Amino acid sequence: MLSNETTSPDENKNIPLSNLKELGQIQIPSATERIYCLPIIGQIEGHQILPAQSKTTKYEHIIPQLLAVEQNSKIEGILVILNTAGGDVEAGLAISEMLSSLSKPSVSLVLGGGHSIGIPIAVSCTKSFIAPTGTMTVHPIRYTGLVINGHQQFDYLRKMQERINQFIYSHSQISPEKLEQFMFTTGELAQDIGTILIGQEAVEAGLIQAVGGVKDAFNELDRLIPPKSEG
Fold first, then answer.
1. Which regions in the chain score pLDDT beneath 50?
2. Of 116, 124, 128, 172, which is the active-site residue?
3. How far is CA 154 from CA 15, 89, 105, 165, in A?
4. Domain ranges of the chain
5. Which of 100, 138, 148 is nearest to 117 (CA)?
6. CA-based angle 93:122:87, to the nearest 5?
7. Strand pairing partners for 81?
8. Maximum separation of any 2 CA atoms in the chain, in Å
């Protein structure tokens, strides 16, 4: 379930199937939830529709959910579950900016993978965790397809890379020099440049704050949520 409360089978019958198909969830934020869980699975789909056989998370579905979390006074924190190969750069950066600007505490947990543009999303939360076997691939922006007006195109990619790097620097403990070293390492990725960090390595690099799992993430959210005032 997506909250710390349970839903009976009869209640599940009333949940629209479109939520499961379109959002990958059986619920969207309701007034009864204290902690809302947001999964970001597969590739992050942005302005271009990915092939039907690809597992995707659509940014136009994530943004309304984050707005609902911010506006719902009953929701006190958000847990972001990441298992993503990356995807659309601008969409991923937009999600990261929204998460970092929430007024409520947030915790991210990398399970499986938090690769490429998934890294800014992982570091955007108040606290970040990675599973012991979780992986994160650090590499420069890649461009696929026909390049038109090459000089201008590469200048755009350079500026986009600077935006991503700046976000990562300002939301984690990694140094600019260390991040660039990981990005341009040769020999670790087949026919490419970049670095794969596994579990504790991501913590030691300063990208992620701690190794942990679901229990640790929920315990941290409980610690981060301010106690309710009485009287």
1. 1-13, 15, 17, 20, 26, 31, 145-148, 231
2. 116
3. 47, 15, 37, 16
4. 9-224
5. 138
6. 45
7. 39, 109
8. 65
Q: What is the CATH number of domain 9-224?
A: 3.90.226.10
Is residue 115 annotated as a catalytic residue, yes or no?
no
Question: What confidence score (pLDDT) does residue 147 get?
Answer: 47
pLDDT score of 9: 43
- DSSP for 191-211 reads TSB-EEEETHHHHHHTSSSEE
Distance from C-alpha of 198 to C-alpha of 79, rounded to nearest angstrom:
21
Q: How many whole angstroms from its chain centre is CA 121?
A: 3
* Phi, psi of 20, deg, nearest 5: -70, -40
For 133-163, what is each residue's pLDDT tens digit? 999 998 887 655 444 455 556 677 778 888 8
Pairwise CA distance, residues 76 & 74, whole Å: 6
Token look-up 């090459």 returns: 150
Give the number of other CB atoms < 10 A from CB of residue 18. 8
The residues near 111 (Cβ < 8 Å, ≥ 6 apart) are: 81, 82, 83, 131, 134
Q: Which of 128, 139, 171, 172 is catalytic?
A: 139
Kindly report the pTM of this predicted structure.
Answer: 0.79
Residue 47 annotated as catalytic: no
| Residue position matching structure tokens 């902690």 | 35
Radius of gyration over every alpha carbon of the chain, rounded to an integer in angstroms: 18
pLDDT of residue 92: 87
